[in-house]
Specification:
alpha+beta; Beta-Lactamase; five-stranded antiparallel sheet
């Protein structure tokens, strides 16, 4: 096969691969060639389409108008026009046509590139990129004889007239990352892997070439590769310029943000995040109304129009940080126009020192306004002043009882000690675990959480310790276990009491030796992991039942933390309820601002067997079914029969009696000595004897030997 015929075949492949409809017509308007896309759009087979003419698919074309079109294309070589085509079912649709005149084997032909413009605006991109499309270069590599065919356009892209320069061995010299090109070609040859990559040349300045290749198989073997090259330097240069612009904004010392007309934040500098205290996730979803509730839609529309009209506007403002504090700034807002849309690019500078007096005055007025609104809206009762503590670990509390729990957290967090968190379900044991991690020396490393109760027994070992491919049925690939992921950090084992007894020895080995074996693996893995475990079960009873290892229990229970139930920290109920009210009001788009006094009283009287989780669910349900700004009691309240009554409480003496008996049972009724009940209760022996007599506690007493 000669070079011309080979190039012709490559070009025909290119015509078939183009994302446009293509047909050829002779001087009589008869269709002599059409690619598959053209046939499919009209609904004809290729054998049918070759029996038709332009008059069959475009009823508006007359013999006279066709002759006129022919002469225009013949004279101008390229002619662009719009028309209407009719498909086989009789449906009409608008088209954009680029007609090219050429000779083929001595016969004059018009090549028409047809694009359907009835349902998309792609025809505009087609017109804009006509020159680019015309410079797509094709090539074919025959792997059987090593021959390569390339079109003239492909050679022009690489400024060569020698096809040998485009062979796999020589094409590498054009590109900066030759190893990447080599891997792409090797993948196409050996793995039948197509690729579409943008590659950088070695030139200075470099050009960017889009390289696309598709392997052609014969049976299960690749016998040739066909592909195209396209110079996309101009497009890539624009992308690089946009990236540079973005990096300049990101790293600017001034606070910079870009808004659209709707007030949505389109882009912002890193200094804005740093000075305002918001996270990237927050800012990405915020608009001007989120950052400053004082801004109204009417004011913003007028303000934005003023910037568009004047081009630039300078003014002073008070910016609100994430923690609610405010500081004065000087803002220079500039109008930007991009893709036919208007934007506001604001450069913000902190002028706190210069405006400190104005700021104090403003805050005083705001405080007066806030106090006035509070008095007007809370005429039903005067709410007691309560101090709410929402610390960095998202733990909300105000009670002394829970402060003692968090004091234990602060004591043990900086150490490497293993911690066992106990307590009823729903008390927030996971939050305690997170607080231990974030206040530890391992806070820069991951906290890996796993719930032992949610995993099937047959999968928990694989989840914790990982497995090798083929270790069991379904293990189609290697899997890294949670302990390996937590290396250098912390692992939180929730519901540790649900761990199968046969797996507890493997966990014990990690705690003792810091090592384990993967399922199906032959190599021991060493890890440095701090373990925090939690359970709502009584592990001591499980040890007696034989369902929990005693040695594992002592390894875990180095520093126990009992997370008290909600009923033991009732002072926190209003704080937690208010937090959940604000959270779910915002989520549901409701206007709730506060809890009524009756609501607080009712919640405080409830025992909350489900603890904080139950309280959260209760408030979420209330937000859904109620309306207004103040949450009052309603059908969402818990049943009255589970509210606390006076019968639920014991007298102080009864509580003392129960506690002393419990201590005596623990010491086997030994009162005196280092292991006696008096020592545990921090009482003198005689005092304890007297109290036992007064409370009517009688049983055989073991004296100090």
């Amino acid at each position: 096969m000669n070079q011309d015929k080979q190039e012709s075949l490559v070009k025909e492949w290119l015509v078939e691969a183009l994302p446009y409809e293509v047909m050829w017509m002779n001087d009589g308007g008869n269709i002599v060639y059409a690619n598959t896309k053209f046939c499919d759009r009209l609904g004809y087979k290729k054998s049918e389409i070759l029996k038709l003419s332009i008059f069959d698919i475009n009823s508006t074309v007359t013999t006279e108008s066709w002759i006129n079109h022919w002469e225009i294309v013949k004279k101008e070589k390229t002619h662009r026009f719009k028309g209407t085509h009719k498909n086989k079912s009789g449906k009409f649709y608008e088209v954009e046509v680029i007609a090219q005149f050429f000779s083929n084997n001595g016969k004059n032909i018009v090549c028409a590139i047809v694009n359907d413009i009835s349902e998309s605006s792609f025809y505009k991109n087609l017109m804009d990129n006509t020159q680019t499309i015309a410079h797509v270069g094709g090539w074919k590599l025959n792997l059987q004889d090593g021959s390569l065919i390339a079109t003239t356009e492909a050679l022009k892209i690489f400024n060569t007239e020698d096809t040998r320069d485009l062979t796999p061995a020589n094409i590498l010299h054009y590109f900066k990352d030759s190893e990447k090109v080599k891997n792409l070609l090797r993948g196409a040859m050996k793995k039948a892997a197509s690729y579409d990559e943008i590659l950088e040349t070695k030139e200075n300045p470099p050009r960017y070439i889009r390289a696309t290749a598709k392997p052609v198989l014969k049976g299960d073997r690749v016998y040739k590769i066909v592909g195209v090259y396209q110079d996309v330097t101009q497009q890539k240069t624009k992308e690089n310029a946009l990236q540079l612009y973005k990096e300049i904004i990101d790293n600017a010392e001034d606070m910079i943000y870009v808004y659209n007309r709707n007030g949505d934040i389109i882009h912002y500098s890193n200094s804005l995040i740093k000075q305002l205290g918001f996270s990237k996730k927050q800012l990405s979803s915020y608009n001007i109304y989120d950052l400053d509730p004082a801004v109204t839609p009417e004011w913003w529309a007028s303000h934005f129009d003023e910037i568009v009209t004047k081009g630039s506007l300078r003014f002073e403002w008070l910016v609100i940080r994430e923690d609610g504090t405010k500081f004065p700034v000087d803002i220079t807002a500039n109008h930007l126009r991009y893709n036919n849309e208007d934007y506001n690019c604001a450069i913000v500078r902190d002028v706190s020192e210069r405006k400190i007096r104005d700021l104090k005055l403003y805050e005083a007025l705001e405080e007066i306004k806030s106090l006035k609104e509070r008095l007007e809206n809370e005429n039903e009762y005067l709410q007691e002043e309560i101090s709410s503590k929402i610390n960095a670990d998202n733990i909300i509390y105000g009670s002394d009882a829970y402060a003692k729990v968090l004091e234990q957290v602060s004591q043990v967090a900086p150490t490497e000690t293993t911690v066992l968190i106990t307590g009823e379900s729903g008390t927030g044991k996971e939050l305690i675990a997170s607080a231990l991690h974030t206040n530890s020396l391992r806070k820069e490393r991951p906290l890996i959480k796993i719930n032992c109760a949610t995993l099937p027994k047959e999968l928990i070992e694989s989840e914790l310790f990982g497995h090798k491919k083929g270790a069991f049925t379904g293990a189609v690939a290697d899997k890294i276990g949670k302990f390996a992921l937590a290396d250098g950090g912390t692992i939180f084992l929730d519901e540790i009491g649900e761990m199968p007894i046969d797996l507890q020895s493997k966990l014990l080995r990690v705690l003792q030796e810091g090592e384990f074996d993967e399922l199906g693996g032959s190599k021991t893995i060493k890890v440095d992991v701090r373990v925090i475990a939690a359970t709502n079960r009584r592990l001591e009873e499980m040890i007696k039942e034989g369902s929990f290892r005693e040695d594992l229990y002592y390894r875990l229970n180095v520093f126990p933390i009992y997370n008290i139930p909600l009923r033991a920290r009732r002072e926190d109920i209003p704080l937690l309820a208010q937090y959940f009210l604000e959270k779910y009001s915002a989520k549901a788009g409701k206007a709730f601002k506060r809890l009524s006094k009756k609501t607080i009283t009712a919640l405080m009287a409830y025992s909350f067997p489900g603890n904080i989780r139950e309280l959260e669910n209760l408030i979420e349900r209330a937000v859904i079914v109620e309306s207004g700004t103040t949450l009052n009691p309603g059908q969402w309240m818990p049943n009255a029969d589970v509210l606390i009554s006076a019968d639920d409480f014991k007298s102080f003496e009864a509580m003392q009696r129960d506690y002393i008996i419990k201590t005596l049972n623990y010491t086997n009724w030994r009162v005196s000595g280092n292991k006696g009940a008096a020592t545990i209760l921090n009482m003198k022996d005689k005092t304890l004897f007297a109290k036992m007599k007064r409370l009517g506690i009688e049983k055989q007493i073991v004296l100090k030997e």
